[in-house]
Amino acid sequence: MANWDDFRLFQLTTTYRDRLQHAVEGAVHEVSLALMSEDQFTALEQQTVADLSGKGYRAESSELLLNLVMEKGSQARRVMWACFPKLWNRDPKLVKILEEICEPGPIPYADWDLAKGTLDFPTELTGAVQRHRETLRAANARVDATVVLRNGSVKVLQLAGRFAELAVASTPRHRRLAEHELLAGGRELEQLADGPSPGELRKIRADQLFTSGDPLGSSQPGRSAALAGVSGIGKTTVVRKFVLDWASGRMCQHFQFVFSFKFQDLNSINCAISLRDLLLDHYPYLRNVLAVLWRNAARLLFIFDGLDEFKDGIAFPDSQGGAEPPHECTDPDFRCKVSDIVSGLIRRKLLPGCSVLVTSRPSALRSLERAGISVWAEILGFVGEERKEYLARHFEDQAVAAAVLKHVQENEVLYTMSYNPSYCTILALALGPFFARPDGDPQSVPKTVTQLYSRYLYDVLKRHGRETESPRDVLLRAGQMAFRGLAEGNFVFTEEDLFRHSLQFSQFLSGFLKELLGRGGARDAVHAFPHLTVQEFVAALAQFLTSDPVALLEHLAEAQGAADGRYEMFLRFLAGLASAGPAGPLLELLGAFPNQATSQVADWVREEAARRVAGDGKGCLLRALHYLFESQDGRLAQGALGSAEALSLRRQRLTRSDCAVLSHAVGHCEAVKHLDLRSCGLRCETLDLLAPGLHRCQELGLGNNHLGDSGMKLVAAALSNADCKIQKLR
What we know:
The chain has 730 residues and is of the alpha/beta class.
C-alpha cells in the first residue's frame, strides 16, 4: 500500500466494493472501531454501524460501513485496507480477496489503465454511452427475491447484495454426458474438492474472461468466450452481474459498449433481420451513433445468454478448410437469420475485433466446438462457505438458516446438489417452515430428494390450490408437458405448448411454472419451471395422476432406454412417489394414487434392483440402490436385497451421497457375503458413512482406495465388533 497513490487505492476499492461488502459482514465492529480511533468515523457513526450488526442486520451494516468509507475519502480507505490483514482468518472471502491482490501479475484493477485511453469517447458518443449505462443498470439491478421475513412477506433485493460468488473453472465439460448433468456436476465438484490434479482446475472470476491481464493465455484484441453451466447454476445471474458491474464502472471499462441478448427473446424473431435492426430493437437510442460503433468494433462486447434455449441452433463450418455457410453475414446491415448474425460475430467475420460471450448448458456446447472459441470456462457452483452464505440469505431469522444448513449437511443425499443456487432456493423454501415452527417434528423433516420436492409442491398447492377446481387435473396436464420437454430437451414452453396440453396460465399454475415475459410483453411470453428438477418432479408425479397404465409403462421404457442420463432424476422421483411415505403430503391434497400405478413402479424398482445385484448391466446397480433409497420402503428394499450375497461396485467412483445410499442398502441385506468396493475412490470421510454395516460382510474388498490411518481405524473398529462376520479382507 505504501506504493499506491490515492487514485490507485480508489480504483482497488471500487473494483472490490461488492465483494468487500460481503467479506466484512462479520468484522464491521472491528473495522469501524479502527476507523474511529484514526478519527475517520465519529463515535455516532461507529455506534450506528455496530448497532445494525448487533441486531442481526449484517448485510445492511457492512453496506453502511462501505458507503461511509467511500464518502470520507482516501484516508478512510487507507485505514480500512490496513485493517484487513489483521482480520485475515475472519472470513474466507476476505482471505480470497487479499490473496488475489498479493498474487504476481496484473492486479484486477489493471483494466482501469486501459480504460483511461478508451474512455475518451468521440463527442457524439458521450450522451449515448451515459444513457446506455443507465439503461443496463436499471435492467439488471434487481433480482426476484425469495427471502422470507418473519411476517411472511418477501423482501426485494438488489443484485449486488444478493450475489454470492460462484467458482468458475477453465475446464468446461463440453462433451457428451452419460449421467444426469446435475448429478454429474456434483460428482465432479466433489472430486475436485478432494484435490484436483495440476491443471485440472484453474479457478477464475467471471470478469477475467475479458480483462487485459487474461489468466487463460489469450492475447487477442477481440475474443470469443463460452461460459458453461448446468441448469440453475447461475449463468444468467453471472451475466446480469457482469453487465451491472460494467455499467456501474466497476470492471471491463475497456469496452465502450456492452450489448446483452437472451436467446429466449431471439426465439421470437421469425424473419430475416440485420445486426443494425437487432440492436435498435433493443436499444433504439443508439440510432444516430451506430456508424461510429462499427468503426470501433474492438471496444464492443456482445453477450448471448442461453444457447441451449435457442430453437434454431447455430451451425459452424469446419475450421479445417470447410466450405463457408451459404449466407455468411459480414455486414451489420445485411438481413439474415439470427443464427447467422451470432455465428458471424463469434467467428470475427462480422465486426472483426469485437468480443463475444455465449452461455450454455454443457449439453449444448458441442455446437461451439468448431466456432474458434478463444476462452472456455464453466461455472462449477458453490464450494465451501458459499453454500452457507447463499442459504443464509433466504432467511431473516439466521437461527432458522443455521438449522436448515445443519440438516442439509447431515443428509448427504440432500446435500449432493447444494452446489447449485436454484436447488439451494428449493431447499430453503421446503425446509424453512419445519425449523421456523417451535413445535416442528424433527422426524418429519425431508431426508430424501423426493420428500423434499413433495413438501415443496405441497406448500405451493396449499397457497394456490383453492384457485383451481381441480389441481389434480392441472398437474396431470402440466406433468405430461414436462415429460415431453424432458424427452425433447425442451425446458422453455410457449403459449402453443400450453394450449397443446389444454393448459391456460393462471395464478395456480404460476406457483410452479414461471412466466418469462419477452420484450413484447405477454405476446412473447414463454414459461419454464423454476428449476430442471421441478420439471422432472412434476413429470414423475403425472405418472401417478393418470388413469392410463399403458402410458406409464411406455414412459418407463423410454426413460430406461436413454443413454445420456437425462431421465435419472425423473426415475428417482418415480421410485420415491410410488411409496406412501415420500408422497404422503401430496396425497393429502391430490387424493390417493391408483394402486395399479404404484404397484407397477414398485415392481419395476424391485426387479431392477434384483437384476443389477445379479450383475446384469455394469454401472447400473448404484442407480437401482438410489431408487430403493428414494422409496424409503423397507419391505421393498428387503424384497429386492434380502437374499443378495454380493454387492460389487468395483471401479465406480463413489460420492458421499452414493455411500449413504449404499449403507442404507447394506442395512436391508440379510447377509452380504461379498462387498467389493475396490478402486472406488474411497477416503476416510466416505468410508465413515459405510462404517455401520462393514462388520456384517464376510468378504470385504477395500483395496486401491485412499483410506489413510483414519480410514484404517474404521476398518479396525469393524473387525473389533462383537458381531463381526468378516473372514476375508482385501
